[in-house]
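Thread title: Can someone regenerate the structure for this chain?

I was given the following input by a collaborator and told the matching C-alpha cells would be attached. They weren't. Posting the sequence so someone can regenerate them.
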Amino acid sequence: MSDNTTDKALLGALTTALGAAPDTVESIFDEAGHLVELRLTLPTQTTIPGTIGEFRSLQRLGMSGGQIATLPPEIGHLTRLYELDITTSALQHLPPEVGNLRLLRALYLRNNLLTDLPNNIAHLRELQVLALGGNRLQEWPTQIHDLPHLEWLFLDGNQLTEIPAQVGRLRNLKRLDVSGNQIRVLPREIGDLTNLERLDLRGNQVTRLPPTVGALVNLRELYLWGNQLSDLPPEIGKLTGLHRLYLGGNQITQISPELGKLTSLLELDLSGNRISLLPPQIEHLTNLRELDLAGNQLAHLPPGIGAIPGLRRLNLSSNRLNQLTPWIGQLEHLRELDLKFNRLTSLPSDIGQLKSLQILDLRGNYLTRLPPEIEQLTDLWTLNLADNRLTRLSPEIGRLRNLVMLDLRRNELIHLPKELRDLPNLRELYIDDNPLLLEE
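Best answer:
Regenerated them for you:
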C-alpha cells in the first residue's frame, strides 16, 4: 500500500501524463495520507496510463471529458473502489478487468459510445446503481440480471428495442429509466419488480401496458409521455400509491374510470392525446396538485373538476371548450389556469372565486367581455387576453393591484379605461393591433 509521499508523487506523474491542468484535478487523501478520491476533467485527446492502478486505496474515481476510448486493464487493481464515474468521455468499451471491482456500488457511464458490456460486469454483485444512459446500446445487457442488489438502472437514450422477460429477476430494483429508446412492448414480467418506485418509459413506441403493471404496488412515479398508447388497462387502478402519472403525447381517446382510484396522485399529465370526455371519477383525485389536459378534444368539463380542492395548476389549453363550468370557482387554491386556444365566448361569474389565482391565460378565444367579478382576483399578476374579440375593458381591471403583465394585443378595443393607471405593479402592457386606443 502506498504512503502519502508515493500517492502524491504518483498523482503528479498521472496529471503530467494526462496533460491535465492542475485546476482540473480534485483529490482527497485520508488521515493516513492515502488517496481515496480522485476526480479528473480530461483534455480532449488522452490515454489513461496503467499507473492509475497504483492507487490501491482509491474509493471513488471520476473522469469526464476527453476521448479515452477504453480504460487500461490495471483499472482492475482498484479493488477498494466503490464508485466509478466515467462520463462524456467517448468511452467505447470496458475492459473485462472491471469485473474485479467487487466492492463497486455505483457505476456511472453516461454519455459515452458503449455498444455492449463485458460479461464480467455480472461479478459486481454489490452494485446498486448502474447508469448507462446516452450510449449506443442496441441490445439489452443481459449480464445485469445477475446483479442481486441493483436498485437504480438507467438505460435512457440508447437504441434498445425490447426489454427481456429476465428483467423480472431484478427484484430489488427501485428505479428504472429506459426513456428515449425504441421499445414497443413491455414484458409481463415487468410486474415482478414489486419494489419499483419510479418507471420512466418516455419517448418510446409502447402501444399497450400489460395488466401485470398493476402489481407495481410501490410505484410512485410513472412516466409514459410520448408513446403510442391508445388506452390504459383497468389494472392501472391498483397503483394506489402513485404520486405522478405522465401520459402526455400518446393516442389515448378514453380515460378508464379506474383512474379515479389513484387517490394519492399529485400530478397527472394527459396532454396531447385525443380525449373528448373526462370520467366523473376524476373528482376522487382529491390530492391532485397539477392537472394537464392541454391539446385534447374536450368540449366541456365534468362538475367533479371542482371537487379537487388542492389543485394548484390546471392546463386546459388547445381544447374545444366553448364554456367553462361554474364549478371551476370551487378551486380556491388554484394558482395557474391556462385556457388559451379554446372557443370560449364568455367566463362564468364564479371565476371571481379563484382568490389564489396568479396566472390566467385566455388568449386565442372568442371573448367579447370579462365578467365584473374579475376584480376579485386580487392575487393575479399575469393576465393574457391577446387574440380575443374584446371591445371594451371594464374599469374593474384597475382593482387588480398585483398585476404585473397585461396582454391585450389583437383585440377590438376602442378605449382603454383610465383605471389602468391605478395598477402600481404593472410593468408590461401590450396593446398592439387594436383598432383605436383612446383614454376614456
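The domain at 298-440 is CATH 3.80.10.10 (Leucine-rich repeat, LRR (right-handed beta-alpha superhelix)).
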